[in-house]
C-alpha cells in the first residue's frame, strides 16, 4: 500500500491539497488509523476500522474499540502525525503487533544546515540511555534512535483485564530535508519484544521505500546508498511478503 506525507510542511488534518512530496509503502498487513480525518469524522472512521479488524464482532465491541482508540488518535493528530498504521500478526498461534507512524516536521531550527550527523549529535545530548547512530536509507543519510521503556498499560487494553507493566521497544528515524528546513520522522513502537528482530527489519524495509519528490533541486540531496536486494522476501505471516533491506539492522536490545 502506497501512502504519502503532505508536501507543504504540514502533516495532519490541516494539510491542504498540495501535491505530495514524500511517499512510502507499507505492507498490506497494516491497518491505517484515521489521523487524516477531521475531528468530526474520527469516531465513525474508528468504528469502521474496528469492523475491518473484527468482522465477526458486534456493535458493542466496535464501539468499545473506537472509544479506546479515540484519545490515542487525537493525541497523534495534535502531534502532527501524517500517517499511523499498525499490524496484527498471528505468529504460530501467538498474537503480535507493532505501530508505525510518520510525520513531516516543519520549521526545524537551522534546518538548512542540519545533517544526519548533527541530528544524531543532538539526540545523544539528551543524556538518556538511548542508542543513537546514523544509517543510510535509499532517500539519504538519517539519524536513528533506539530506546526501550517500561510503561503501564491500562486494564482496558490488556488480556488480563488488569494494568500491566510492559517493555516497549521504539525506533525513531530522522531524515533531514535540508532544502526546505524540514525533517521526515518515522517511528516504530512495539510491546512484543520477542519479535523485535522481525519488526526492526520490517520498519527499515518501510523507511527504505521513502521517496523524496523534489524536482526543484537535486544538487543538495545526500548521495543515495547502493543496496543489493536479497534473493527473496521475508514471509511475516498469513502470506504477507515484505522486501528486506540488504543489511539487517542489528539487535540493539541484545
Describe the structure.
22% of the residues lie in helices and 32% in strands. It is α+β, with helices and mostly antiparallel strands and 254 residues long. Residues 7-19 and 216-254 have low confidence and may be disordered.
Rounded mean pLDDT score: 76
Rg: 19 Å
Share of residues in helices: 10-25%
Strand element count: 12
- Distinct helical segment count: 4
Q: Outline the biggest β-sheet.
A: 7 strands, antiparallel
Write out the strand line-up for the largest beta sheet, numbering strands in chain order: 3-4-5-9-8-7-6
Order of helices and strands: EEEHHEEHEEEEHEEE
State the secondary-structure class.
alpha+beta
Low-confidence stretches: 7-19, 216-254
Shape: globular
Proportion of residues in β-strands = 25-35%
Distance between the termini: 32 Å
Write the layout of secondary structure elements.
Elements: E1 2-5, E2 22-25, E3 30-32, H1 39-53, H2 59-78, E4 83-91, E5 94-105, H3 116-124, E6 131-137, E7 140-153, E8 164-177, E9 182-190, H4 196-207, E10 211-212, E11 234-235, E12 241-242
Antiparallel strand pairs: 1-2, 2-10, 3-4, 4-5, 5-9, 6-7, 7-8, 8-9, 11-12
Give a quick precis of the structure.
The chain is an alpha+beta fold and 254 residues long. It has helices spanning 39-53, 59-78, 116-124, 196-207; strands spanning 2-5, 22-25, 30-32, 83-91, 94-105, 131-137, 140-153, 164-177, 182-190, 211-212, 234-235, 241-242.
Amino acid at each position: 500500500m502506497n501512502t504519502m506525507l503532505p508536501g507543504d510542511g504540514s502533516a495532519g488534518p490541516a494539510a491542504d491539497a498540495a501535491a505530495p512530496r514524500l511517499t512510502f509503502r507499507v505492507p498490506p498487513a497494516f491497518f491505517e488509523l484515521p489521523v487524516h480525518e477531521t475531528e468530526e469524522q474520527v469516531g465513525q472512521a474508528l468504528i469502521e476500522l474496528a469492523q475491518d479488524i473484527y468482522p465477526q464482532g458486534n456493535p458493542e465491541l466496535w464501539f468499545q474499540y473506537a472509544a479506546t482508540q479515540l484519545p490515542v488518535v487525537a493525541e497523534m493528530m495534535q502531534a502532527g502525525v501524517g500517517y499511523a498504521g499498525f499490524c496484527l500478526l498471528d505468529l504460530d498461534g501467538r498474537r503480535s503487533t507493532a505501530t508505525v507512524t510518520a510525520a513531516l516536521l516543519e520549521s526545524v531550527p537551522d534546518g538548512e544546515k542540519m545533517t544526519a550527523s548533527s541530528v544524531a549529535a543532538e539526540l545523544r545530548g539528551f543524556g538518556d540511555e538511548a542508542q543513537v547512530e546514523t544509517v543510510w536509507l535509499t532517500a539519504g543519510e538519517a539519524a536513528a534512535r533506539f530506546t526501550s521503556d517500561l510503561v503501564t498499560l491500562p486494564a482496558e487494553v490488556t488480556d488480563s483485564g488488569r494494568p500491566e507493566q510492559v517493555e516497549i521497544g521504539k525506533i525513531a528515524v530522522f531524515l533531514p530535508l535540508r532544502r526546505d528546513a524540514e525533517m521526515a520522522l518515522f517511528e516504530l513502537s512495539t510491546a512484543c519484544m520477542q519479535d523485535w528482530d522481525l519488526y526492526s527489519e520490517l520498519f527499515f524495509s518501510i523507511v527504505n521505500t521513502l521517496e523524496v519528490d523534489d524536482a526543484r533541486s537535486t544538487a543538495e540531496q545526500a548521495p543515495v546508498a547502493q543496496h543489493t536486494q536479497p534473493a527473496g522476501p521475508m514471509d511475516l505471516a498469513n502470506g504477507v511478503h515484505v522486501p528486506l533491506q540488504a543489511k539487517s539492522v542489528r539487535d540493539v536490545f541484545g
